[in-house]
Amino acid sequence: RTYSGTETEGQLLNSFVQYFGDSLGRKIKRMPLIEETVLPGNSLLTLPVVIIGNGPSGICLSYLLSGYRPYLSPEAIHPNPILHTKLEEARHLSIVDQDLEYLSEGLEGRSSNPVAVLFDTLLHPDADFGYDYPPVLHWKLEQHNYIPHIVLGKGPPGGAWHSMEGSMLTISFGDWMELPGLSFKEWAASKRRNIKSDRVMPEEIARYYKHYVKVMGLQKNFRDNVYITSVSRLYREKDDEGRSQQNEDISTQHLEMEDGQKSLIKRNWEVRGYQRATDGSHVPFCLFAENVALATGTFDSPGRLQVEGEDFPFVLHSMSDFGAAISKGKLRGKADPVLIVGAGLTAADAVLCACNNNIPVVHVFRRRVTDTSLIFKQLPKKLYPEYHKVYHMMCTQSHTVDSNQHSTYTSFPEHKVLSFKPEMKCVLQSASGLKKILKFSVALVLIGSHPNLFFLKDQGHSIGHHSNQPITCKGNPIEIDPYTYECTKEANLFALGPLVGDNFVRFLKGGALGIARCLAIRQKKKHELIEGGDGGGDGVP
Question: Which segment of the chain is annotated as a signal peptide (predicted)?
Answer without folding.
Answer: none
